[in-house]
Amino acid sequence: MKPIVAIVGRPNVGKSTLFNRIIGKQKALVKNEPGVTRDLNYADVVEQGRVFTLIDTGGFEPIPPHPPLKKGVKRGDLTMLAKVREQVMLAIEEADIIVFLMDGREGFLSSDRDIADILRRADKKPIYAVNKIDTDKQEQGITDFYALGMEDLAFVSAEGGRGVYELLDKIIDSIPKTSAKEEEDRIKLAVAGRPNVGKSSLVNRLLGYKRVIVSDIPGTTRDAIDTPFNYNKKKYLLIDTAGIRKKTRIARTLEQYSVMSAIKSIDRCNIALLIIDAKDGLTEQDEKIAGLAYERGKGCIIVVNKWDIIQKETNTIKEYTERIRWKAGFLRFAPVIFVSAFTGQRVFNILEKVEEVLAQLEKRVPTSQLNKFFDGFKKYHQPPIYKSKAVKIYYITQTDIKPPTFVAFVNFTEGIHFSYERFLVNKIREAFGLDKIPIRLYFRKRQR
Hints:
- The chain has 448 residues and is an alpha/beta fold.
- It has helices at residues 15-23, 75-94, 110-121, 136-140, 164-174, 199-207, 259-268, 284-295, 316-327, 349-361, 367-380, 418-432; strands spanning 4-8, 41-47, 50-56, 97-103, 127-131, 154-155, 187-192, 225-231, 234-240, 271-277, 299-305, 336-338, 385-386, 389-390, 393-400, 405-410, 440-445.
- A 6-stranded mixed sheet has the order 2-3-1-4-5-6, with helices on both faces.
């Protein structure tokens, strides 16, 4: 499982700029005004052979419980501040490593002290970093940041890159050493979804006993609970994830899904079971969770729970499935199954789908078969023209599984349009029975 590194700090200290500098591309929105980052931004980082997930959080501003409205400040602005603050608290709870970023130009402020106190109460030992330090002279002039007994400060310029590699060294040194021994050779299923969609009830139905507390109160499951079980001579591990982890009073908005909690669980699984509430349909939060599974190349099965309480007509399942496909077009391949954890209806059909999806995730297609298919395919579907020259696909090979990953060698990688890539992916699905999983297709320029 990849460790999670969260960058926290008050607004406008340069968290998003540091995030972009570390991941090497402009993923987070950067603007020279406070409060630009409203949601969690995350990316996987590979450094010195180690992999971790980097989280960029919104600006943390300690606010009183009932702040008075100032001139020009709207109540909605305060609500947004509270939501961002809550999300940062979730980041502090979930992260394995915290980079506490401060502003060297503004100096050490009272809000920095408030954040440091919160980290101390949460029993977190952050990496203290001071940003916007562009010269040695500026670094030598910094004294007030040692007021909290901070030692071994990292001085960086996220904009210019100064000190960032040294900061990365500190992060790598702080990553906990984990045992190479994985869980038994079991099929790992992450039971993911929003609070109160019936995840725990579904787990209990699959296991046949009340392993997980079931309640109508959202967020009853506080942490991920791993449960091994055997079914039909196969070994499984159920990872029952919480909607959020409710460790502090600030984390009360139970509908606010913790991205980090989902990342941790989905990273460990082979297949994510995305549980959605039949009454609500596929919500925006469900799409975010599904996106995590897709980005990480995991198999995904959409499980529509509470189907027993839906009034049905002849085409209800078909129409419901089409709505899901329309809302989450990137998951058109994912099987959809309709169940009731309460009555047990079709619950064990989930495991049959799991076997089908896993078989496709582990499938290898011989290079000879791939190229035979492509040789015939190219006769009827010529690649596009790039700068008055035909794009040529010389050969293709599979390089990995889970998910199946293919590399095609071409003369002009720039000439492969996204629409043609998607067309090829769909043809590979049809030709080799990979219709229920994500697949990856990359293009490389053939070297002479």
